[in-house]
């Protein structure tokens, strides 16, 4: 049974107050050091991109090609994870700089910022790990919950997870379309899909043209080297970012919830759901940077609009709160969390439901009605 069920209303309220205090303190402390951090990082990311693309032009020399791929891969990962993801969460809106404002920023990715902010900022961060509300549970193609009804297609769970990782930026780009509603469940028409896909395809065309035609063409006779380098850099970015996301959401100990838990959910209950529905992984400063500090996924789910480079500082306090109230603080080495994720992927490829857990048990204990489906303000954005 989930520890969620053993907490009293008073404990939920106390947890909410303690976490609000951390958030309010950090928000009040935002200033020049945070602005310098993000501006310096953007400068370094651009330098890596210029170096990477330049070195790929000399790709007929193996050392230059390898260095170019490394620089371009690092550039794309940093742009995706520590800059794009965090800026579009509004972590730097307080600076008043339109270049790094969540309303105007766009990233080097095939996903439009508008679509991503709806499926990620709103749906995922409001309904974290709520089955049938959080589309990040399986992205519409994977079975990632024992409470998700098994279908024969889920026998391909491991293969589909690999395909999703390989083409991660493209799957994220079309995530808002919820293609399973058209391809599998037949609840969406072809015309609806085409209309919704237009802005995504416009962004995709731009990115595909830049990486696979424009820059390779600029290399003239070295077109194949630049083309191959761009393919490799995008693959590296996709595989790395997907595993970071997997590790933060899908280890076996991470909990999932029924819709009933979000009805009349208090701030303290929302905070606890974030902690139970997330996982961290350990590493040094470079690991944290290259993961966009999503190595602190628990802290990110608690405070999604707080600059992510601050998560390392507050993580001991969050962990202490978990220990105080008997809540698990799910963390471990990167490869340990990765093994747990893939174990879950293989396990859920087969039919069956684990006894003593999951949606049915939690829903029965809480005995609540399903939550309304209308739009609402994410609790993470409400004033503390």
TrEMBL record:
Transmembrane segments: none
Region of interest: Disordered: 354-384
Limits of the Fatty acid desaturase domain: 64-331
Signal peptide limits: none
Entry's Gene Ontology cellular component terms: membrane
Highest taxon of source: Bacteria
Gene Ontology MF terms in the entry: oxidoreductase activity, acting on paired donors, with oxidation of a pair of donors resulting in the reduction of molecular oxygen to two molecules of water
InterPro entries per UniProt: FA_desaturase_dom, Fatty_acid_desaturase
GO BP field: lipid biosynthetic process
Alphabetical list of Pfam families matching this protein: FA_desaturase (PF00487)
Protein name stated in the entry: Fatty acid desaturase domain-containing protein
Provenance organism: Alcanivorax hongdengensis A-11-3
Taxonomic lineage of the native organism: Bacteria, Pseudomonadati, Pseudomonadota, Gammaproteobacteria, Oceanospirillales
